[in-house]
Design goal:
12 strands, seven-stranded mixed β-sheet, three-stranded antiparallel β-sheet, flat, alpha/beta, 390 residues, 12 helices
């Protein structure tokens, strides 16, 4: 039995992949309905991405069932996806696992290390709950000490970080802060952690899709990310990079037949890298969609995306009341944070005007996410609406 080769063929419906930010915008259905500035929460997917995911489901549950072995076909597709998505991260395929989300990856790594009472975890005060809750659990259940390095306006003092991590077992920090949009010195922080003998775990959820990446160059022991934000992919497609030098230190709290090299062996051997954190029959549709999203972004050009994101972010900060701006006036990324009297009410009012942003809890403010598909006129509308807040 041989199934026909899987081909999502979004070109048949959507034409060739977009090759410019303007063409990218035209490919995103949500842009016809709202001025969307919430990509830092979840990005609006191009139609070709949505169709690729749906095409996999139909192929796997119709064509393959009729003509081949659904497990054999799916497991072969796992490997093709792993290779393609690892290349997007600049990583070898054997180092990357397919997960559900960034939170899934961080939690899995936190649970895969051996912990004893008195062990030390260091994190910053910039971390999303995905990067705090697993360590709160370790503190509560295993007596692990959690140290929090304070930052100022999203910037970290590397000397303070070095002091905190000097006798630590693990350091967890973001590559780009979700609340200020600041870019952390990831490579330097990883070097500091390595010098101290601490495991480094990076939350990179806000990085992929904003600019080209080479994750191994950071020198991190593990990096968790996902594709539903700036890559404009579906929910449910996460990636976990594990440096081969530390994989032997990580024994997942949950394993199953996708975690090991030979499921039927008398003594199991865990898969290399992040693949040891895969478990069972997860849907591949989100990762199929992410592959199409990645190839769409690469067709536009990640350097072009990065340049436009910064240009539009600069345009927004230049037009905002400077006293309101909480993030940098010279943005590192597409995330711009603004002080308003009532963040939730502001989000609702702007939504009624056809502008989508979000409120954040720390600092208590609103955050706009500016992507390459946004336009100058949308940015100007957003600035005018925020400046009108009392």
């Amino acid at each position: 039995m041989t199934a026909p080769e899987f081909d999502p063929d979004p070109d048949a419906k959507h034409g060739e992949r977009p090759d410019s930010p303007e063409a990218l915008r035209e490919s995103i259905p949500a842009c016809d309905r709202v001025a969307y500035f919430n990509t830092g929460a979840t990005g609006p997917s191009p139609g070709r991405v949505l169709d690729a995911s749906a095409a996999w489901e139909r192929y796997h549950k119709v064509d393959v069932l009729a003509e081949s072995d659904p497990y054999e076909v799916a497991f072969a597709e796992y490997e093709r996806l792993r290779e393609r998505l690892a290349a997007f991260l600049g990583a070898p395929s054997e180092a990357v696992g397919l997960t559900e989300s960034t939170a899934d990856g961080i939690s899995a790594v936190a649970a895969a290390l051996d912990w004893e009472s008195g062990d030390v975890v260091v994190r910053t005060d910039l971390e999303h709950p995905a990067g705090t809750l697993p360590f709160d659990r370790l503190e509560r259940r295993h007596g692990v000490e959690v140290r929090v390095v304070e930052t100022e306006d999203g910037r970290i003092d590397t000397d303070e970080f070095a002091d905190a991590v000097a006798d630590a077992d693990l350091a967890c920090f973001s590559s780009l802060s979700w609340n200020y949009g600041t870019r952390l010195p990831v490579r330097e922080l990883c070097e500091i952690a390595a010098d101290a003998g601490a495991f480094s775990l990076v939350d990179a959820v806000q990085s992929p899709g904003q600019r080209p990446l080479s994750v191994p160059e950071w020198g991190a022991d593990a990096v968790a990310c996902s594709g539903h934000k700036w890559c404009l992919g579906p929910w449910g497609a996460g990636l976990l990079y594990v440096d081969p030098a530390v994989e032997a230190d990580l024994h997942p709290a949950q394993i199953s037949y996708r975690s090991v090299e030979s499921p039927g062996a008398d003594a199991y051997e865990l898969n290399p890298g992040g693949a040891r954190f895969e478990r069972g029959t997860a849907s591949l549709a989100p990762h199929v969609g992410l592959r199409e999203a990645v190839e769409t972004m690469e067709s536009v050009g990640l350097e072009a995306v990065h340049g436009r994101v910064l240009a539009l972010s600069d345009r927004l900060t230049d037009r905002l009341d400077g006293d309101r701006l909480l993030s940098s006036a010279d943005p590192d990324s597409g995330l711009v944070t603004v002080d308003v009297a009532d963040p939730e009410a502001t989000v609702e009012r702007l939504h009624d005007e056809g502008i989508v942003i979000r409120d954040i809890p720390d600092p208590e403010a609103v955050r706009a996410s500016v992507h390459a598909f946004n336009t100058e006129s949308e940015v100007d509308r957003l600035a005018e609406a925020l400046n009108a807040e009392q």
